[in-house]
Each structure stands twice: as C-alpha cells, then as structure tokens.
Design brief:
Number of domains of chain B: 1
CATH topology of chain A: Immunoglobulin-like
Order of helices and strands of chain B: EEEEEEEEEEE
Shape of chain B: globular
CATH architecture of chain A: Sandwich
Helix content of chain B: under 10%
Number of helices of chain A: 0
CATH architecture of chain B: Sandwich
Distance between the termini of chain B: 37 Å
Oligomer: heterodimer
Strand content of chain B: over 45%
Order of helices and strands of chain A: EEEEEEEEEEEE
Largest sheet of chain A: 6 strands, mixed
CATH superfamily of chain B: Immunoglobulins
Distance between the termini of chain A: 41 Å
Radius of gyration of chain A: 14 Å
CATH topology of chain B: Immunoglobulin-like
Strand content of chain A: over 45%
Structural class of chain B: mainly beta
Shape of chain A: globular
Amino acid sequence: AQTVTQSQPEMSVQEAETVTLSCTYDTSENNYYLFWYKQPPSRQMILVIRQEAYKQQNATENRFSVNFQKAAKSFSLKISDSQLGDTAMYFCAFMKHGNGGSQGNLIFGKGTKLSVKP
Amino acid sequence: EPEVTQTPSHQVTQMGQEVILRCVPISNHLYFYWYRQILGQKVEFLVSFYNNEISEKSEIFDDQFSVERPDGSNFTLKIRSTKLEDSAMYFCASRGGTTHGTQYFGPGTRLLVL
C-alpha cells in the first residue's frame, strides 16, 4: 500500500520570502503522479502543481516549483516570493497510474499548515 | 472555466437519517470520486466511479454508503443511516481521460450529524 508522509505539521514564512514544504512517499509502483493541493480556510481543495513520475524535469507553476527525487521518494514544494494569500493547508498526494477504471484514487498526506506573515 | 459543483454546501441531520450529497462533475470528465475530510484530519478516499460502476472503494465505504449517477450529469453519495462519526467535509472530484491524472475538486459539503 502507498503512504504519503508530511513531516512538518506547521510552518511559517515572512511575506516575500521562500519556503519549502517536504513530502515523502512509499510505493512499489513505477508509474504514478504526485500532486500538491492547497486548502485555504474555505476548505476548497485547489490544485497547485502536478508531477508525472516518468518525467525527470521538475514541474513549475509560476512561484511554485517542486524538487522531485524519484529514487529517494521525495517530492518537496518550494514557494517563492510568498504572499499572504498563500496561507493555507498544503497537502501532498499520490496517485498510481492505471488503465480504464483502475486509474486510482488520491492518497493524501496529513498536510502542512503554512502561515505567511506580513 | 468549468468547475465541479456540490450541493448543499452545508447539511445538518439527525443520527440515523438518510442524506444525499450531490455533485455535478465537469461535463466531459469520465472518472468521479468521493473523498471525506474529518475536521483537522487528512483527506480520505471513499469511492471511485467509472463507466457507470464503482471501480474502487475504501474500507470506509461500507454498506451504508452508495453512489449513483442517475441522469448522466449528477453524481450522488447517499448515506443511509448517518452516524455521529460521519460528520465531515465531503468532496466530490472528477477527472477527464486526457488530464494526466489531475482530479478537480468541488467546494465540498459540510455534513454535521447530531
């Protein structure tokens, strides 16, 4: 069974600075996807960034980037130029790649609560 | 931009009552999911649905739960006899066949069982 571990329950960062949230996972699968979702106080789940395991290049989305280390099973999220609106829970998630109906569900970590301070 | 919608946003019910949570996935999506999040805890998978049948379900998804896609647009989760521990946020998600695994979540239904 796959597991996702987020070892930082809470983090804080000053506005405009950079912060890195860590995530490790355990799987015997070779093809899978990794995601970071953001959950603001409204509790909506918002996709931040996605990484396909077969791609060596780290995904980037504007101020958000990942450091994907497949051998180490590590998938950290870096937020550059932090903004007050980045304050939220951040969940790391794993999904195995499959075919047809067995495309797989998301397995989430416990989350990291990020506070961006002015 | 297309989005997943869920109704109601909040529901309060008495223990033992039946509830139906409704979702309208993104229109051209093929895979549908229900997740729940007990307050302060992580998001947990309940069930996935593809080609008009359940494709996977978790241990949480026992006989009191059922899902249905009654009319080709709505996707519902029914809890037959609610328990106090069913109080949670319930998220619907959907995914298309070409979105490389990305699941798009609805805003959630906050269920409170008294």
